[in-house]
């Protein structure tokens, strides 16, 4: 008796083929680990954007009319679709962005995308009675904005897209997505999977360069723009959105400080410090980017960090053994390289790394720890966005807090200490949107997240995140 023909599961090659079946101009997308061509992305025009916005605008009234319950059901089904294609999505992401499959990387990101979509679908936003004295009764509800523009980054392209799209859809808006030109395939694949469930026109995607982002952020039919990326680009979006008075949520650059208090156990905190700084090979807006350590534990913390960092394998993302990958693009490699070289030239002490192979095809920069560095050094003052951590010695806590606050950005920060009450007192004096105690960068879909100073404005996640994707309306009577 013949054996039955096996049913083969779809692969990431199938999903890649699906998103590359288009006519028109296209460009090559290279693997940042090997330099190999992994696929082609469409190069859409401003006319293509106009058509996408028109489709989203036409689809929005019917989508809003479905009501919260039905929209939430469809978003849950879209999350199921992401899970069903999870491995394919993770492999596309690993090959395009560079992050390994394992560790807090590609598979983790895809799981975060479906998890955050479920959270947006499940979160309730009740009508709020804001005043009632027996004579005046006022209630506040939230109406859909209309069309939302979602402009995403290249470091966590799939998960951050869901952070933008999920709550927007939940609140009855439609969305036009513009992915980073560095990682379009990851987001095209994600949107293709989501759109297997959602009605036509509810999520549109336009792939292209900066001119597409500029046109989206100034488009009169777009009522809100959500953007995650650099402070410089965020400022440009603010300017281009002004004429139409768009609502904005901006999660911009950070240069997060960590303060290690003198009562810590260096070995106990070393792995937390490492992942706070080096998650996604340091390419995270709210990563730990400058570390202030009290003189009494400075050498021990440095030694413990070296032990942890030296054991973390870096390499091609599809190799199951790696947990660190390349920098996503050569421009970012050059920034990290320049900043580390400036630290070395100043006499700072390199504890680990600092000597990249600049001739290799991939954008690998070795895990680098730099000690005995002056706070004024560019590696401390500029956001490196890569695998190089400066470690600054301090002598009293007031000094460390002043140094932590002496920058123009304030996305996140952390305080590390055995006495949690003291750590909280220090945390309350730091100028940042989020301050973690004995961890760095951990996020939860129900905990609001946003920046201070030039790290942007607006909140994401949870109830506050839903409110940010609606128009408040007060009804008196």
Automatic annotation (TrEMBL):
Q: Which SUPFAM superfamilies match?
A: ALDH-like
Q: Which GO terms describe its molecular function?
A: oxidoreductase activity, acting on the aldehyde or oxo group of donors, NAD or NADP as acceptor
What top-level branch of life does the organism fall under? Answer: Bacteria
Q: Which InterPro entries match?
A: Ald_DH/histidinol_DH, Ald_DH_C, Ald_DH_CS_CYS, Ald_DH_CS_GLU, Ald_DH_N, Aldehyde_DH_dom, LUC3-like
Q: Which residues form the Aldehyde dehydrogenase domain?
A: 25-468
Q: Known Pfam families for this protein?
A: Aldedh (PF00171)
**CDD domains annotated for this entry?**
ALDH_AldA-AAD23400
Q: Which UniProt keywords apply?
A: Oxidoreductase
Q: Where is the active site?
A: 251
Q: What family does this belong to? A: Belongs to the aldehyde dehydrogenase family.
| Protein name as catalogued | Aldehyde dehydrogenase
Which organism's genome codes for this protein? Agromyces aureus
């Amino acid at each position: 008796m013949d054996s039955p023909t096996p049913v083969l599961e779809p692969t990431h090659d199938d999903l890649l083929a699906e998103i590359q079946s288009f006519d028109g101009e296209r460009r090559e997308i290279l693997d940042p680990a090997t330099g190999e061509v992994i696929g082609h992305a469409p190069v859409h025009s401003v006319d293509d954007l106009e058509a996408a916005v028109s489709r989203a605008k036409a689809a929005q009234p019917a989508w809003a009319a479905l009501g919260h319950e039905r929209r939430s059901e469809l978003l849950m089904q879209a999350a199921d679709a992401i899970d069903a294609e999870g491995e394919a999505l993770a492999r596309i992401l690993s090959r395009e962005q560079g992050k390994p499959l394992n560790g807090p990387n590609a598979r983790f990101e895809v799981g975060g995308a479906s998890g955050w979509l479920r959270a947006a679908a499940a979160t309730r936003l009740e009508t709020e009675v804001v005043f009632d004295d027996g004579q005046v009764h006022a209630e506040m509800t939230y109406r859909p904005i209309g069309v939302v523009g979602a402009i995403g980054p290249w470091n966590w392209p799939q998960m951050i897209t869901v952070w933008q799209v999920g709550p927007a859809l939940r609140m009855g808006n439609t969305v036009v997505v513009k992915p980073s030109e560095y990682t379009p395939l990851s987001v095209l694949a994600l949107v293709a999977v989501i759109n297997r469930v959602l009605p036509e026109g509810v999520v549109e995607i336009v792939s292209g360069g900066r001119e597409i982002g500029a046109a989206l952020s100034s488009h009169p039919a777009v009522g809100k723009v959500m953007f995650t990326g650099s402070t410089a680009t965020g400022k440009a979006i603010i300017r281009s959105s002004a004429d139409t008075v768009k609502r904005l949520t901006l999660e911009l650059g950070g240069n997060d400080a960590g303060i290690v208090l003198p009562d810590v156990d260096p070995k106990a905190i070393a792995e937390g410090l490492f992942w706070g700084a080096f998650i996604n090979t340091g390419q995270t807006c709210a990563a730990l980017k400058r570390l202030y350590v009290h003189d009494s534990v400075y050498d021990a913390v440095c030694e413990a960090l070296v032990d942890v960092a030296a054991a973390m394998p870096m390499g091609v993302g599809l190799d199951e053994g790696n947990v660190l990958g390349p920098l996503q693009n050569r421009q970012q490699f050059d920034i990290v390289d320049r900043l580390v070289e400036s630290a070395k030239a100043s006499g700072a002490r390199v504890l680990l790394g600092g000597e990249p192979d600049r001739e290799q095809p991939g954008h690998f920069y070795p895990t680098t720890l730099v000690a005995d560095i002056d706070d004024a050094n560019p590696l401390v003052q500029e956001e490196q966005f890569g695998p190089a951590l400066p470690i600054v010695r301090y002598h009293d806590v007031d000094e460390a807090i002043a140094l932590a606050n002496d920058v123009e950005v304030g996305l996140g920060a952390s305080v590390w200490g055995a006495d949690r009450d003291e750590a909280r007192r220090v945390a309350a004096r730091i100028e940042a949107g989020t301050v973690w105690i004995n961890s760095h960068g951990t996020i939860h879909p129900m905990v609001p997240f946003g920046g201070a100073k030039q790290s942007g404005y607006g909140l994401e996640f949870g109830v506050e995140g839903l409110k940010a994707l609606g128009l408040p309306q007060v009804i008196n009577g």
